[in-house]
Amino acid sequence: MNTRRGARGWVAAAVLLAWLAGLGMLTWRQLFRPNTEQLAEAGLRVTPGASFYAVLQHGRQIGFASSTIDTVGREITVQDYLVADLPVGGEAHRASARTDVTMSRALRVLHFTLDVDAALTPVNASGTVVGDSLLLLVVKTQAGQPADTQRIRLSGPILLPTLVPLAVALGERPKVGKSYTLPIFDPSSMSPRDTRVRVEAESVFVLNDSSIFNPATRRWVSALPDTVRGWRLATARDHASGPTNGFTGWVDEQGRVIRSDQMLGLTLERRPYEVAYENWRAEASGGAVAVAADRDILETTAIAANKTLKRNLAQLKVRLSGADLSDFDVKGYRQHLRGDTLTIDREGLAAMTSGYRLPNGARSTVMGVFLDAEPLVESANPEIVRLARRLSGTEIDPRVVAERINRWVHDSVHQAITVGVPSALTTLHSRSGDCNELTQLYVALARAAGIPARVASGLALVDGKFYYHAWPEIFLNLWLPVDPTFNQFPADASHLRFVVGGLGKQAALLRLMGNLRIDVLSSR
Fold it and tell me: pTM for the complete prediction?
């Protein structure tokens, strides 16, 4: 049961990271590139105010969100907040995310902070822009641990996703059919990138500006309706920049989101404060609450196999349909895609030999980059280094050490579904987590031992269904997938890889949920 639960844990963190990137309600990776004069002009038209939102799942409220804009002197501040009870793994898990941004009147980001508080791993990131050419980024995962500081080169000014509605609405009047592009700093991948947005439609909405309390029902109800004009925005896919997590929503002429339809049946809807917050607060328990399978994000995104499959498959052949896979990491090594048919072959003994020796043999190769520490993969931390050395002992064969680490992580970490951003060091301390936490810890230990390692994610077979899952890949003579969650070395052929990289890239998998279909053709 623990293995089954741990295998299902990926999507919760991916959903939270998606919300962090735009706090769920704002144009998530949707941008437009006006010239400097247009941005400066838009900044002068920014007016202070606050908007409040109900976070809905299939029409049922599960959370609250807010966006507050203030103008102070020559600066503009934007504060966005979201809290929700995510229905994951049979329970409702409370999670929150917050962004605070300070920018100039020309809508240039000067400083920002991002905070996520969920389960075991609160995460704080802060960034300061230096002269439009450098971003000083500091990421901290828990109190008492040293922060990770990075210097990220920029090609010019950046925006955060939460600021884009202001630029779209105030830079110039949106025009249906027009597409725009703008560079932003993407919090989910901690990197700058260009993305495009298209204005798809224009319409008129009736919104309520205030509320009154109904003593009979002891609930707040909306009052004082007002008419506003809005524009429908949607992500334009860009094959050059990889998978893009889509947004579809309506924004008014002041840059405030009216309604956004997220993936997985999630929606944010603008409402008066009391209706959006007080009603939800009165109903929410704030603790773990059982949820039915038809609301559970993990169960509703699982894909049932059309044939009975055994465990530890040596080969699996499936037909994939319903989703465009051209941007995903489907091909490579064990995975062979021909047309819509994907064949996965589990590696034999020959693939587990290595051309280098530990501890430093891989450092001088092109794979040395996969030995470096990075945010949430704290492979240079003294605690992780000491454990990696203890597990390695005097062994110099990377395969032997990699298998030892796989067994230790599986045996030492209690598998339980969590909602949050996984950190290797936090997992080492808590000894608890799902496939995300086990994978992060494995990758950190492998890198500390001198074995190039990275994160892979996609689907894995559990009890007759394909669930979204994460696992490590290590480099010997080629990239070899392993799985400490299932204690498989190498991972069996029921692992369908779609993405290589951390949570920033894994969020792209949300685009497949509800669309991808899998038909099993054969297995052995």
Answer: 0.78
